[in-house]
Amino acid sequence: MHTKIILASQSPRRVELLKQIGITCLVMPAGVDETALPDESPSDYVLRLAAQKAQAIANKLPNQDLPILAADTTVALGLQILGKPEHDLDAFNMLKQLSGSTHQVHTAIAVAFNGKLETAINSTQVEMMPLSDAMISEYIASGEHKDKAGSYAIQGLAACWIKNISGSYTGVMGLPLHETSLLLNKIGAKN
To answer: How far apart are CA 36 and CA 6, in angstroms?
Structure first.
């Protein structure tokens, strides 16, 4: 099974995950405002952003015959959205909040194809061990936290901090492959 799509993201992790399931992609990031709306839940937030990203590329390429896939991931502690850190201190504070907690990682996907837009979401519970300030500082010094929702990458150095997940590992990485495959099939974009 092989399909070519447009990926409305510049994430190298998403490109690699798509390759894993036989999908090649043209990378075309969609620049949308990622500010959360007042009282917007984390799941509604990622669903809205994924749909906006897919639609933004579809609007730029109205006669496109390739499906357009967009995704958005956020880490949530209850109803608090922990997006990408603005700077190292922001990352430190996020990781301090996540230390010893069970939090949620929400990843929404959207596919625009043949005038249709379909969305899906995956939510995963992630239990993180308690972290010392020294552990957090050492991690931040590695630079791995940059451009990562919640300031960590489960597929990197932070993997040893994760005690348990209930849900999709690839969803925590930024693209739930099960839901992605189902959505591409549903919209008729996978051959």
So the answer is: 25
